[in-house]
Amino acid sequence: MDSQKVDMFMMANSKFFPEDKVVFIKEKLMAADESRFSLATTIPLKDPTTLMIVSLLAGTFGVDRFMLGETGLGVAKLLTAGGCGIWTIIDWFTVMKRTRELNFNNFMQHI
């Protein structure tokens, strides 16, 4: 794969992945053929900043968990009012990391 295309992809999307796995993603893209690279550009990635804002505003109702695809935990968080607020506060500190890990796992599944 053309290194310029890979570099442009990484510049545009590195904020969506964990920092320690960016090099691994870059190596994977360099080894991929053109069709895999085209597929990589169409994978929907969730923005960690957006999920952080959602968690701050509606985290008590489990909306952040629903957006991450964790339906069971979202329902539990909704029914317990965010674990009486404790669970909500913990999620404020972990939601961005979980979002980046979810993006990395989705990327690796498709590539």
Task: Give an overview in words.
The chain is mainly α and 111 residues long. It has helices at residues 3-13, 22-31, 34-42, 48-58, 63-67, 71-79, 81-84, 86-110. It is elongated.
SSE layout:
Layout: H1 3-13, H2 22-31, H3 34-42, H4 48-58, H5 63-67, H6 71-79, H7 81-84, H8 86-110
Helix pairs in contact: 1-2, 4-8
Offer a quick outline of the entry.
The protein has 111 residues and is mainly alpha-helical.
The total strand number stands at 0
Secondary structural class? mainly alpha
Largest sheet: none
Shape: elongated
SSE string, helix = H, strand = E?
HHHHHHHH
The parts where pLDDT drops under 50 for at least 5 residues are none
What percent of residues adopt helix (DSSP H or I)? over 70%
Name the features.
111 residues, mainly alpha, 8 helices, elongated
